[in-house]
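On clarity, I found the account of how folds are encoded harder to follow than it need be. Since the whole study asks how a given chain folds, the encoding of that fold should be made plain. For the editor and my fellow referees, an illustration may be useful. An entry of this sort, consisting of the sequence and the corresponding backbone structure tokens, reads as follows:

:::
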Amino acid sequence: MAAMRQLTRQFHVSTRGKGLYAFTDSVSDWLARSGMAEGLLTLFVQHTSASLLVQENHDPDVQGDLERFLSRLVPENDPIYRHTLEGPDDMPAHVRAALTQTQLSIPVIAGQLALGTWQGIYLFEHRRDPQQRRVAAHLLGESEASVPANIGEADIKPRGMGGRSQ
């Protein structure tokens, strides 16, 4: 029986204000260097005013539409907010993070992220000002040499590197 391995890493994502920031390539590069063939990748954003998404990476209008939708859903300067010490965009940023995800789990199959053709990994910044965000990564799985060959119609084959999927 093959031994399970685990690796950790921290990704740093610089933002320029509200919006989605792709970091799929950084994650894919780290995965490729890891030698891990099969497993599970967990990503966790270490902030309360940003979130993580797997989202379309082909048409940038999708990203803009998501930002505009959340801005309408969770407006700044709403009189219901009592937490205003860090500015009018802080409490809405917390609400937006609560409505989205702070953690992602992505399967690793055949040494690649099991993302579809048009999918990418994004940090979703909810504050107006530039930020330095940290994303903790934990990879659990088996390396190339220890993974038995899987044969069968139920096997899932990734469609390519770089986080693209349908």
Observations:
- The longest strand covers residues 132-143.
